[in-house]
Design goal:
single chain; about 280 residues; alpha+beta; 7-stranded antiparallel β-sheet; 11 helices; 7 strands
C-alpha cells in the first residue's frame, strides 16, 4: 500500500456545528451523505460521517471536509468547524457563511505548518477570548517536541470547551473513522441523517433559509440582488466541483443556486400574496 493510500485509510473526521441538532439536521441532509448527528455541548452538535469518501475517491480527507463544511455553513447563522486527521497530518477548517474558510495544519509529529493569522481569524469568528484563548491558540502554533498532531487537536478542543463544546466520550481526534462511527451509533440522542429526495431537500432548504441570517432578506430589491449573486456564484462553483470530481464543492455550488432560486421564489410569491390580500 502506498503512503498516500495508507494515510487515507487511517483518516478520520468530525464536524462541529454551533447550533442544536434540530437546527443542524435540515442542512446536514443536503450533503447527500449518511451522517450521525448528536449533541456536543451547550449549543453545539457533532456530525460523524458514516462513509469514508476520502478512501475511495480522488480527494484527501481535508479537501472533502472543506467542501462539506462550506456547504453546511452557506446561508446558516452558525459556523461549522471540521476536524480531520490521517497518518501524516491533522488540522481544522472553519467555515462561516460566505466568508473564506480558514484552516490550520500540523504534521504527524506536531510541527505546525499553518499561519498565525489563521489562528487569530479562528478566534475572532468563534468569539473566543482575545487574551486568554488567544494565548492558548498561539501555543498550538509554536514548536513543542512533546506534542504530536493528536495532542494539538486535543489542545484546540480544550480551548473550545470554554465556548461550550463537549464532545461525547469516545469521539476524539486520532480515532479511525470506523471507531468513531461505532461510538456515535450508541450515543444518547443520536440521529441518523441521510438523503431523502429532492422534495424533502427543498423543505429542508426552506427551513435553513428561514432560520438563517438571510431570513429578513427574503423580499424586495435586496432579496433579488442577493439571489442573483448566489446563483451567479453557485453555477461556476458547481461546475468547478464537477471538473475536480469534488462532491463537497458541487454540493456547495448547488446550495448557492438553490438559495438563489428560493430567494426569487419567495420574493414573487410573497408579493403576489400581498397583492391578493390587498384586493
Amino acid at each position: 500500500m502506498s503512503s498516500d493510500a495508507s494515510a487515507r485509510a487511517d483518516a478520520g473526521a468530525l464536524l462541529l456545528c454551533r447550533a442544536e441538532p434540530d437546527v443542524v439536521e435540515p442542512a446536514a441532509r443536503l450533503l447527500r451523505e449518511r451522517i450521525l448527528l448528536a449533541p456536543a455541548g451547550r449549543d453545539w452538535s457533532v456530525l460523524v460521517p458514516e462513509g469514508k469518501p476520502w478512501v475511495h475517491g480522488d480527494e484527501p480527507v481535508d479537501r472533502v471536509l472543506t467542501g462539506w463544511a462550506t456547504a453546511l455553513a452557506v446561508g446558516a447563522p452558525w459556523p461549522v468547524l471540521a476536524l480531520w486527521w490521517d497518518s501524516e497530518r491533522s488540522g481544522y477548517i472553519l467555515a462561516a457563511g460566505f466568508r473564506r474558510t480558514v484552516g490550520y495544519v500540523w504534521l504527524a509529529n506536531g510541527t505546525p505548518v499553518g499561519e498565525a493569522e489563521a489562528m487569530r481569524t479562528f478566534a475572532a469568528r468563534l468569539g473566543l477570548d482575545p487574551v486568554l484563548d488567544m494565548q492558548a491558540l498561539d501555543s498550538l502554533g509554536s514548536p513543542d517536541s512533546e506534542a504530536d498532531a493528536r495532542a494539538r487537536l486535543l489542545g484546540l478542543l480544550a480551548v473550545l470547551t470554554r465556548a461550550g463544546v463537549t464532545l461525547p466520550a469516545g469521539l476524539g481526534p486520532g480515532e479511525p473513522a470506523d471507531r468513531l462511527r461505532a461510538v456515535a451509533h450508541v450515543l444518547p440522542g443520536v440521529r441518523e441523517v441521510e438523503w431523502s429526495g429532492w422534495r424533502d431537500a427543498v423543505r429542508a432548504e426552506l427551513d435553513v433559509v428561514e432560520r438563517g441570517r438571510f431570513g429578513p432578506w427574503l423580499r424586495g430589491p435586496r432579496a433579488r440582488a442577493l439571489a442573483a449573486v448566489q446563483m451567479a456564484t453557485g453555477v461556476p462553483l458547481a461546475a468547478w466541483g464537477l471538473r475536480r470530481r469534488s462532491g463537497g464543492w458541487v454540493v456547495a455550488g448547488v446550495l448557492l443556486v438553490v438559495h438563489g432560486a428560493l430567494g426569487f421564489t419567495y420574493d414573487r410569491v410573497r408579493a403576489a400574496a400581498a397583492g391578493s390580500w390587498r384586493g
